[in-house]
# Entry
Amino acid sequence: MRIGIDIRKYQDYGIGTYIQNLVNAFQNQSDLDCIYYASDDFRSDGMNIRRGKIVTDSSPKYSLQELISLSRKANSDHVDLYHSPHYTFPINLKMPGIVTIHDIIHLRLKEYFSFPKRSYAYFMVRHACSASSAIIVDSEHGKKELLDVFNIAPEKIHVIPLGVDQSYFAKVTDEDKTIFRQKYSITKPYILYTGSLKPHKNVPVLLRAFKDIAKEHDIQLVFTGESVQDNPSLIKYISENGLTDAVKDLGRIDRTQLKIAYQAASAVVLPSYYEGFGFSMLEAMASGVPAIGARAASIPEVVGDAGILFDPNDEHELAQHLVRVLTDTPYSSVLIINGNKRSQEFSWSRCAEKTLQVYTKVAQ
# Structure
């Protein structure tokens, strides 16, 4: 079976992780002949292509041109099936197509997006749902969201949970942790946040909760991912509340350093109002760290009863959970054990296997 897969978001957060792990898993499938459609600036570091080929496309992302260009390439390459891992689905494909829709945040949290962005998202998601032969979502919450907004036959939607990189289960050494702390001047136990700082991520509630407990507890708050320095409102809050020395902004760090950051943390917090999945909760649990997530969107599906859930509008509740995790060692130990068991239920091999089942069903 020849599969065309759009990997132009290979380097992105979230969707990039999804693409990277599917590609790696597909390398072990002898009956697959994959053509990967990549952007011109594609960097193949870490991408082990033993089977298939890479075809570049210069079309701007989120443009009409990309919808036409990718379709032409897939048609001329005579692929049997096309998979778009994002809601930008080509026009006039001559073969069946599958789309993965990770979320419809533009349509659910309208206050965070301009009218043009909301309109574009609505049109593109509607087109993808209509033109595709099957839709993959990351969670039951994602399926419900699509059914609430669009007229889709439920059987067309396939729920396939994402996975966690198995390397997160491997313990790093105390020496690695010490070197990491010294490198970034982290001198106290810390709470970790990793990811973007977009409005729906609800980072201000984390900062307010941290402020409530920082004076009584000798701790730090560490950010990785999008740099706090690029967010004036967060910098202002940190400065005005005397948190400058307590907050560490690591920016984007490589995967090896990120794994150490997780395992050296006392807790990982995801206060987001909306997540298609919530990787940081899964990665925290696999790393042996208590996971504290907002009771919102798909986060409860990932955390289950193995972590802590809180009202994303209540910084005081979050502060109480943080204090307990920091001070109650037996409680934290139970969370770590339960989280490790929970995270083992999610694997990229299982995600790839279920995705291949959808491929086979659609291609028949």
About this structure: The chain has two domains: 2-163+347-363, 166-343. The two ends are 10 Å apart (CA to CA). The longest strand covers residues 33-39.
